[in-house]
Every structure is written in structure tokens, then in C-alpha cells.
Amino acid sequence: MESLEELKGRIEALRSLFSDVKLMTDDETPAETASSFSSTMSDEVKDSNPYSRLMALKRMGIVQNYEKIRDYTVAIVGVGGVGSVTAEMLTRCGIGKLLLFDYDKVELANMNRMFYMPQQAGTYKVEAAAKTLNFINPTVDIKSFNMNITTVENYETFQKELLHGSLTGGRVDLVLSCVDNYEGRMTINQACNELGLPWFESGVSENAVSGHIQFINPGETACFACAPPLIVASSVDEKTLKKDGVCAASLPTTMAIVAGFLVQNVLKKLLNFGEVSHYLGYNAMKDHFPRMKLLPNTSCSDTNCIKQQEEYKEKVANQVVDESLKVSEKESAVVHEDNIYGIELVHDGAASKDDDYSAGDGVKYSLPQTSSNVEGPVVSDTNQSVDDLRNVMNNLNNL
Ligand SMILES: [Zn+2]
């Protein structure tokens, strides 16, 4: 039998072990961390200012009003491999408010990805995420919803939150889809078409080596129903894949790259700098990044999309398009207030073109099906024979 002293020693050892665990899981932010953050962003250049590097974007002439990020609310649907990293990046950037939607639990099988820790296995993703994010930046307002948005009653709550969930009780500024299934994407598409809310779609292929992001501004750009991805067209049922025990592959690299592209474009959209990509693909096998513009389908199956298209046309005709919502067509000039390093921007006039490479290779699983909506060279059907065409080509060459 152990002596009293030995038992006391063991209690002490257990106590210290539990205090370590508590530090890692407690939702209470350490007081010294909380006091370093203030709700207003300081541009003071000092090591103890958590925003000094972000506010330096103003001094470098990239962003005019970085502190505006404190006013924005972003809804993230799905906090898995892409969504959790997206939420962490936005939290580190000092976003005003985040709404997190998910109903899954953290599993040990998720540990090949970023963000979640093994000790969080078995807990709900939105709850685990909210705790960690609160640790990282306690001034970000984080509201989590442990629910599946595709059910009828939850859809109502989802829509209500999108309409009234912002910091000021109004509409959220952007919705980000980080779900891994078609049903979830179509639900977000339906809600955003109904409400006229801009959103970003994102995805990673099941073989883990390609991904994409897509910006959707109802009425102006193709919605998710206008141009469904190839995976849907090829009738591959994602649920069947899971049920058969043939799980999808995933890499932390591809997930983090897609999350990085997503947040980069969210920042550009919200803070009004650079160009927002309509559609940006990623092929890891060749490190290829196809980028294209997708126009709405005038015979889209979603009636609200058609309605939004008509309203957008009217707005353009009356020249009342909200410039902050319009996808920037022109390149923004980057002006440095003081160029102490003497760095010059050189425009790459003759960018190299991968002639032997088609965009399809990079976005096999995610390229929208309706290619006629993709802006670019259009080849029309012809009844002419090859010889006729060859003659035309020769005539043109002789001009
Ligand atoms: Zn549509």
C-alpha cells in the first residue's frame, strides 16, 4: 500500500497534468493575450501590436482602409479541411464577425489536415473551432451553429442568420462555401440567389490533387446551378463513395492552398484591392492555375438566378451597379507611398502560355459543365469540309 506522501505526490502530478490539459482546451482566453488585442486596429510599429504587419499594407499602398475589416461579417459553411483554415486566416486578419455552420464531429482521420488537434476528436467541429479561434483573436465575434443547413427547418435559420447576423444586425457581407457535397452547395446557392448575396464556392477534388474557388455575385456571374461541376455531370454520388468505404483522399497542402486562394480573394473583395478571380483552378500535378470568367446561364434552372440576372441588367442599364460588388475588370495600380527599397514593378507583357495544357486537366473534378458560358474563343459549328477550311486558311495566310 502507498504511503500518504506517495499519494500526495501522485495527486500533485495529476493536478499539474490536468492544468496543462485545461490550458489547451479551456475557452477562456489568457488575460495577457486578451489585453494585447483591442477592438480598434492600431498601426503602431511595435512587437506587441498584433495588427502592425496587417496595418503595414496601408503604408505599402496595397490597401487604403485595412481597419475596415473590423466592420465585416463572413459566414462560413463547413469548417473541415478548407473551412477551418479559412476561419483561422480570417480571424488572424482581424475580421469583425464569423458565423460558422457545420454538424460534423472532429475525427482522428482529419489529423492529416490543418487546424484541429487530436484531443478535439469526438467534439463538434463548430465548437472546437470557436474555442481555438477565440484563443487566437478574442476580439473576433464568433457565432457557431451546430446544424445541417440542408434540412427544411435549419434552412430557415440559415437564411435568417444571413439576413440579420451581421455585426449591426443586417446582412452578412459574404458567404463562403467550404462544404464537401453537392447538396450543401446547392442550398447555399439557393439562399444566396434568393437574397442576392455574393458568395464564394470552393472545392478540393477527391483525389486531393486539384481544387478551385469561384466567386458568385447573383445576376452578374454564373451561379452554381448555371454551371454545375463535372462531378455532378458524371453522376458520381459522393455519398455512395463514402458508404462503400472508398474514402476520398486529402492533403493538407491542397486544402491550405485552396483556403489561401479563398481568403486572398475574400480580402480583395472586402478591402477593395487587386482583382477578384471569378474562377480560379489549381492542378497540383503540374502546378497549373487556370483562371476564367463565368457568365450567367440565361436558361438557369434556378428561377431566382433568372430574376437576379434581369435585375442586374436593369441596374447596368440605369448605371446603378454597386461598384463595390462588381468584379474589378481593371488592374489596380499599386502605389507605394515611399519606396525605400527602390523596388519596381515590371509588367510581364508576354506571359508564357502552356499550349500543350488545357484547363480541363487542372479542374477535372470541378470545371463547370456549361463551357458555352466561359468567355474565350468560340468555335461555331460549320458544314464546311476540312478541305474547304484548309482553302480558307491558305487564303487568309496569303493576305
Ligand atoms: Zn444560375
Automatic annotation (TrEMBL):
One GO cellular component, as annotated: cytosol
Entry GO MF terms: ATP binding; metal ion binding; UFM1 activating enzyme activity
Annotated stretches, region: Disordered: 360-382
Domain annotation THIF-type NAD/FAD binding fold: ranges: 51-301
Taxonomy, superkingdom: Eukaryota
Compositional bias (Polar residues): 367-382
PROSITE patterns hit by this protein: D_2_HYDROXYACID_DH_1 (PS00065)
Keywords: ATP-binding, Metal-binding, Nucleotide-binding, Ubl conjugation pathway, Zinc
Transmembrane segments: none
GO terms (BP aspect): protein ufmylation
Function: E1-like enzyme which activates UFM1.
PANTHER family: UBIQUITIN-ACTIVATING ENZYME E1, UBIQUITIN-LIKE MODIFIER-ACTIVATING ENZYME 5
Family under the similarity heading: Belongs to the ubiquitin-activating E1 family. UBA5 subfamily.
Name of the protein: Ubiquitin-like modifier-activating enzyme 5
